[in-house]
Specification:
Its EC number is 1.21.4.-. One of its GO terms (molecular function) is oxidoreductase activity. Keywords: Oxidoreductase. Pfam families: FA_synthesis. The protein is an alpha/beta fold. The protein folds into 2 domains: about 20-290, Isopropylmalate Dehydrogenase, CATH 3.40.718.10; about 315-365, Hypothetical protein rpa1041 (Alpha-Beta Plaits), CATH 3.30.70. Helix content is about 40%, strand content about 20%. A hairpin with a 7-residue loop joins strand 10 (about 230-235) and strand 11. Helix 4 (about 125-140) packs across helix 5 and helix 4 (about 125-140) runs antiparallel to helix 10. The longest helix is centred in the N-terminal third of the chain and has 21 residues, at about 5-25. The model has no long low-confidence stretch (mean pLDDT about 90).
Amino acid sequence: MSDKRIKTLIADTFLEVADALETGQYGKKPVIGFASEGSEHGEDNIKRAMELAAYKGLDARLIEGEDIHKEMEKLLDSGEIDAAVTMHYPFPIGVSTVGKVITPGIGKPMYLATTTGTSDTDRIAGMVKNAIYGIIAAKADGIENPTVGIANIDGARQTEKALLKLKEQGYDINFAESARADGGIVMRGNDLLAGTPDIMVMDSLTGNLMMKIFSAYTTGGSYESLGFGYGPGIGDGYDRLIMIVSRASGAPVIAGAMEFATNLVKHNWKKIADDEFAKAKKAGFEAIIDELKNAGKKEAAPAAAVTAPPKEICTAQIPGIEVMDLEDAVQALWKEGIYAESGMGCTGPIVLMAADKKDKAYEILKNAGYVG
């Protein structure tokens, strides 16, 4: 063996030991794949992101191929990579992403729960789930007992009541206190800027807006230069660690997303997620969600059951459907013999179907008033 190769092995060993001392784990570095569908800032931005990741000591690898997401999923499922960063991914309903920003008040990190995807088709139920997702992301990123606040938006008080009930029934939530004089769990705009809570709970559309503002407020909006991206997709039973950035994300944010992913892998994010969901369910989480979704529903004649057609591989998608109409749109296609699934794309809710059924599916949905 050459002297150069021996020196390289020795250096790698020392790096592994140093990493083990820092994290309490010993072994191979987490491998983070990057599936880039095309940055708005060109190939140089991608190259710079990979260089920054290497500078941070991360094991980041580009994912290439004709169907880049299919290749990404293959690498994740085979264990060749531990996590992936990508600029767009259609998560299923029930999965949404927890972003991580640096707040401008005192430079404190804060988790935005959530920023893309849809946790639930019911807005309030979704926000309650987002609180759990945020706790999972923060704990998996190394914060032992993160504080939780609720952004002062529509549905904040209903979310507060549900989370307080969950705590009373045994799920340990460490609520933050607003920095404003009247305090409380519900956070004001000042708390957003100061990063008062570790986790700020909101719906994903508001979170997406907040993410873009925090990431690009210093650049005029065209280049996301700050933070760690839109975060990991989290949901009960969801096994893939897929991190989202946007096409406007600059190299520092892409590299930050890779660093975020590495931390999640090192802290065994999946075990933390499973443990948190189990503890929440033990405290009556599912009953609380059902209660929220059933609240205010009018008495109505039961709809006729619709049986799904034989399952097909869904590679085509139709966007532009209101999230509250999503499941009805899927069933409208089932009635016409077209197998379909609901999902969430980067622009909002989508219905997925086989490519050869897309045109017919579009006409059905258009005639039913689901798309324009």
